[in-house]
Amino acid sequence: MHVFVTGGTGLVGAAVVAELLGNGHAVLALTRSEASAAAAAAAGAEPLHGALDDLDVIRAGARKADGVIHLAFGNDFSTADAVARSVAEETAAITAIGETLIGTGRPFVIVSGTPWVPGRHSVETDPVPTDGPVGGRGRTVTTTLQLAAQGVRTSAVRLPRTVHRDGDGGFAGLLTRIARDSGVAGYPGDGAQRWPAVHALDAAVLFRLALENAPAGTVWHAVADEGDRVSDIATVVGRRLGLPARPVPEEAFGPLGPIFATDQPSSSAHTRAALGWTPRHPSLLADLENIRP
């Protein structure tokens, strides 16, 4: 299959591109810079120069492909306005791809986040949140999955808040960067809230399986660790950096503070059973041992 991938040189995207190429697929990768183009080419993908807001380029990439995996996101969480801009940019790109694929029967795999449900682990049948700092992403995913009724084999792979590799990535990576800047491996509240996690290489396998096999309009959970206590994550981060681990105000985490403070364990039991997905790479707490002081 000839697959158009956005975000193909990021932490998750690079793993997805390698997984696709290693399983006989060809990849057309959207690349924003010369460095990204060089990285994509070195991996064996064909670069397509353009940014996420270059909608004509996005549409052209989708038209050329047998399937699409969308992974790109602005990832600027510095302010609420920055998050809103990233969400709006992503929504426009996903909408453009979806409209291009209507009536083709081609697969379109989009990325989402695992939801949180008070008192229990979230599962694949739970809806994603459509309010809060990144609620717009939930609304876009929900709308895009409905394109199954218009001849697009849509599916959503829900990533946990931490997708990690070599001690970095996701919310745990943000905690690490904040700790380096502040001198404290902090966590909001009492740290008992739980975050699910997955290794990037395991997540990549699930994206491939969804591309190849997922029925239209379906949702999948890329969850390996169902929920690590945030205080345990901060403890490892602090030990690796030689910093104290202790509670800090929720506001220290900017617009993501409310999400950081939320208990959000998640299950992937249905995904494992239905698609035969089996995570095999190190857990989050084990991988954080790779943080360099």
UniProtKB/TrEMBL annotation:
* Molecular function GO labels: aldehyde dehydrogenase (NAD+) activity
Which residues are in coiled coils? none
Show where the NAD-dependent epimerase/dehydratase domain sits: 3-217
Which is a Gene Ontology cellular component entry for this protein? Answer: cytoplasm
- For this entry, the protein name equals Nucleoside-diphosphate-sugar epimerase
